[in-house]
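Mods, move this if it's the wrong board.
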Amino acid sequence: MFPEGFVREHVERLCRPGDWVFDPFCGRGTTVLESLLLGRNAAGSDVNPVAYCVSRAKAQRPGLTSLRARLDRLEEGCVSGRPNRWENERVALPPFFRRAFYSTTLRELLYLRATLDWQSDKTDRFITALILGSLHGEMDRSNAYFSNQMRRTICLKPDYSLRYWRKHRLFPKKRDVFGMLREKAEYRLTDIPDCPSGDVRLADARTVSGRFRKLRGRVSLVVTSPPYLNVTRYEEDQWLRLWFLGGESRPTYGKVSRDDRHESPNLYWRFLTECWTGLAPLLADGAKVVVRLGAIGLSQDQMTAGLSTTFKTVFPSLRMLERPARSDIVRRQAQSFLPGSKGCLFEMDYILAV
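Not the wrong board. Structure tokens:
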């Protein structure tokens, strides 16, 4: 993954205002939002509902006035609704949830989970994205999260979390869900520059040419970061956020994507080749592609050779515009709960013309 500055640098340098920028693995929506803010048209896709919800919320933001009004209505409905229903649902959940969230916090989250129409309504989607960003995190460092102590961006398995909390005698703190959402909405939507909306869809990267037919032959620049080889299992790590979006109350595997985490380099390179094949019809003549890639178990040269092969299979005339750039990963999240783990030690950046 990459920060906002990474996208800004390459968008400003490699395409012009009004050009189309695309990200087939849009994740948190950084490429789409930054491209829009820079006066480009932008679109993206992701197979994970959490990524889709967050990215689309950034690409199609509601007005602050309408969002405030919606939060007022939601809070009124939560207070005047059927509190017994949410208490019954809270008690029926697995033990993880009752140790992860304070009782009133969890009841409010259950109400919002059942009420928000994040798939169809952009205001509800933005509120949902705010919740997903605050659903769990480091309680010892910030009061901006709803949960007991967890990693900031991923949720560990229920049994591990329960053991960790019991060992360290950690309990969730009471949170004012609606008050926190109002503060986060004000922060996210106050004094933001105007920009057009982008197009983000829930789709596998291999199918984007069929899902974005109007963009065929029009994309000038791709800025993306595919899932790293043998690094992260997104469906497992995001299981609590997937639950809030209507998923199961436990980690699942292979239900969101069968390509969630490749451990075999051969299968991984085949997967990326299929993704570039799906992307190819969208690209304009002379389009450029910026890729940030990481892996466990591969050297810098092996990563470069593997990625080059995937592109040349689809684009025989491909050429690298600059030498691959390496950046070491200094502070890794794996260290916070699993000290001593090796994880992904570096990332590689590639700029190609196809």
